[in-house]
Design brief:
Blueprint (H helix, E strand, L loop, with lengths): L14 E5 L30 H9 L17 E3 L2 E3 L18 E2 L9 E5 L2 E2 L9 E3 L1 E5 L3 E5 L6 E2 L10 E12 L4 E4 L7 E8 L5 E4 L5 E4 L4 E12 L25 H13 L8 H12 L16 H8 L4 H14 L4 E5 L4 E7 L3 E5 L7 E5 L18 H12 L68 E8 L2 E3 L3 E10 L9 E7 L10 E7 L5 E7 L7 E9 L8 E2 L2
Parallel strand pairs: 1-22, 2-11, 5-20
Antiparallel strand pairs: 1-27, 2-3, 4-9, 6-11, 7-17, 8-9, 10-14, 11-16, 12-15, 13-16, 14-15, 17-18, 18-19, 21-23, 23-26, 24-25, 24-27, 27-28
Helix pairs in contact: 2-5
Amino acid sequence: MRRLLPILAFAATFPTTVGAQQSTDGPYVLHEYVDAVDMQGINGTGGANPEVAREEFFGAGQPPALSLETRPGEPIYDKDGPVFDRPIDTPYGALSPYAAANTLDDRTDRVDSLTYFANFDPSVIPYKRVVAKNHAVRRGQAQYALDVQSGERRPVDLDSPPNGPSDTFWGTFLVRLEPGRVHPIASISPDQRILQIVSEPDVALDFERDAADNFFIRASQPGLVRVNVQVAVPTFYFGGAFPDVAWTDFPSDVTPPLDPALRAHALAIAQKLGFTKTQSPATTVVSMVSYFRDFDARPFPEELKGGDLLETIATSAIGVCRHRSLAFVFLAQAMGIPTRYVYNEAHAFVEVFWPGHGWRRLDLGGAANELNASANDGRPVHDPGDDGLPTPKRYLEEQERMAHNGWEPPNARGDGGGESNGTGRSNANNSAAEPGTSSTNGAANANPTPGPPGNAPDAPVFEEPPPDTRELAALRIASGTAVVRRGEALQIEATLTDASGKALPGRQIEIFLGAVGSTNARSARSLGHGTTGTGGRLRMRVEIPAEQAIGRWSLFLRFPGDANHQPAVAE
């Protein structure tokens, strides 16, 4: 298992570790001094190019900042799952795998607004796996429920590489550790492989999973920890055609067996809807998705109350995402297709296991009218490509309704783009999409054929900006402290010259503290500014705010430019 040390020597500017006085109340040391970092030749004796080495080490994308500060709307994960800083609605179930079972209900009308926090980069909004349930039961004759199959958790294999094509993501979690307890965290896929683990403070962490592939963290030390995890997710999980398999190819031990009476009842409902084993498994799954995506999210009819709830919801085709997903699980499991119910704070969907290929995500629609996504600004939204599944009328109407209500991925507004992930697909989704639906299916999302310039009467005319003919400037950091404690001053020395090396005195230099590797002043904390003196030199002391979170940060300097010189950033 790879771990990064607290000081990342390959940052674009000299990195600063913000520390605090050593705590005597517990086992944590809240600061750590490291002279050099040797990450497979990234620094030290290897002499490798830092930028090249960084890309080779991290692969696509970069890890989130290691800060113990909570981002706006960010939950803290404890032994019971994510805990938000304010009450939120969770209509699809408690956000802990081992809380009460998820039961089928008759509250089938649409939810107005829900909140979602984006733990992953690229974001998988709204599909992160907070809870997965695999054990379908009927209690008495009326209550249909799903919980997690009992059994011991097993360690997560951290050494095996991904199997086949995969997409990579960074996940970040604030976890309040209790020794000896497991702490559930969100995931993207049951088959995801963990590539890297980075934590602040740097503590030993064990990862486990249960029978439904809920993921957990365990540690022997208490306290608040920021955990960054890089994962690789098989591309099959996101979409594509279902390969031909036989009904006898499905394993019988992936999900717990249904009670014989429940299985017979659910099979009878499936047959009433036309889903039988006279069709191939692939045809059956595609047909079921098409049917369940065409449900109507409306109030439960009074005249239907009092009957068998599973049969009524399935045959009447009413309900939001949890009704569609729960009913789908019962019918699919009865037919012998291993299926799970998966949800987070904002959406519910299902997973099916396909022989020889692993788990596959199936979204059935039915999300809320509006989705308030926290911590998603500026990050790309993962584009899974066309999932190859039908998009019936009501499913498309949901997309149009959500677009009308204003929800769209942040980068559809120009906030950054995706990176190539090695699969020929982008990790950015640049179209407005309805949470709980595929962003690439159907005519509602088809790109219009471009017409001649000026066809749209109100279309803005974009012109290339004129080239910047000002002279280049060079800003260099001569020296600086690598480790500093909160509330202490930091000595900075830098020089500013033009392209020929001529000193530029009397110019203002801005000083920022930001995420490791970042030189984005908009997302960094300003520590003040100074003015270059004789020889273009800047010498000054800046104070690290006492409220600054403990962690790894990059200190960078910026010359905003003047009438004759272009802007420059110290690297």
